[in-house]
Specification:
single chain; alpha+beta; Methyltransferase, Cobalt-precorrin-4 Transmethylase, Domain 2; five-stranded mixed beta sheet; two-stranded antiparallel ribbon; 6 helices; 32% helix; 4pyrrole_Mease_sub2; 4pyrrol_Methylase_sf; methyltransferase activity
């Protein structure tokens, strides 16, 4: 349903919710490696269901936090933060604000949604209720690009950015 060639996917990664004290970036390295190899990356987004707060866990109380589901917006914001952080460290990330991504919500359900565009647009797109996934594209075939245009958030910015990594 998301118009990319399945055989062109690399390693799948999970993007986890960050906390104030824990902001892992290891998944970003895998996305970059896939992209360097021309492969797309399916990013599975974090879900927190039946999780206890640290306080409740320490006190042995069976009180659970409300469920949380990471959205495409949140995942894109974390990726953008990592890109900015790595630039400040003097690196030149393989993935930029203009890397074409695909946001997916409720795949297979009657109300599924798909949106495509540069990463910076994925931080503002609204795909509704969970579950969400994000795809960071690698090298794209011209037919993949044509199909992604059907789901573009803003066709003008898609046109300006999409052709930087095609073959």
């Amino acid at each position: 349903c998301f118009v990319l060639q399945l055989y062109n996917f690399g390693e799948t990664v999970s993007i986890v919710f960050w906390t104030d004290t824990w902001k892992p970036e290891s998944f970003f390295d895998k996305i970059e490696k896939n992209r360097q190899n021309g492969m797309h990356t399916l990013c599975l987004l974090d879900i927190k269901v039946k999780e206890q707060s640290l306080e409740n866990l320490m006190k042995g109380r069976k009180i659970y936090e409300p469920p949380r589901y990471m959205s495409v917006n949140q995942a894109a914001e974390q990726l953008l933060a990592i890109i900015q952080s790595r630039r400040l460290q003097g690196e030149k990330p393989e993935i930029t604000e203009n890397t074409i991504c695909v946001g997916l919500a409720r795949v297979g359900a009657p109300d599924q949604k798909i949106a495509s565009g540069p990463l910076y647009q994925m931080s503002t797109v609204e795909l509704g209720s969970p579950l969400h996934s994000l795809i960071v594209t690698g090298t794209m075939h011209p037919l993949e690009l044509e199909m992604l245009k059907l789901f573009s958030v803003d066709s003008s910015s898609f046109e300006n950015n999409a052709f930087q990594r095609t073959t």
